[in-house]
Design goal:
By secondary structure, this protein is α+β, with helices and mostly antiparallel strands. 14% of the residues lie in helices and 26% in strands.
Length: 102
């Protein structure tokens, strides 16, 4: 299942998608890779909001960043010529579970 966090406004569509089928919250790592990689603290790991019966944790976008992703993610996205695969959170995810819509 794909969990989408973000918003759409007059300036564009700003979503981070997390494939909860792939994400395991980096359970065997010291800490979640996306949480470590994000300079803005956008991610957290916890209970799956889509599947509350799931036992393993999953990455998600923190509630306080969901309505301001355009600004929270701005430090990692140059104005032009950026490659989504080189964004710190996307590159850090060992399962390839994170994607950005813009």
């Amino acid at each position: 299942m794909i969990a989408q966090y973000g918003y759409k406004d007059g300036s564009g569509v700003y979503y981070i998608s997390i494939d909860t089928e792939k994400c395991n919250g980096c359970v065997n790592a010291d800490s979640p890779k996306c949480v470590e990689a994000c300079p803005s603290g956008v991610f957290e790991v916890g209970e799956d909001e889509i599947d509350p019966f799931r036992e393993e944790p999953v990455a998600k976008v923190r509630e306080d960043h969901r309505n301001k992703l355009r600004f929270s993610c701005a430090p990692c996205k140059p104005a032009s010529g950026w490659d989504i695969e080189k964004l710190p959170c996307v590159a850090a995810c060992p399962k390839g579970a994170i994607a950005h819509s813009w």
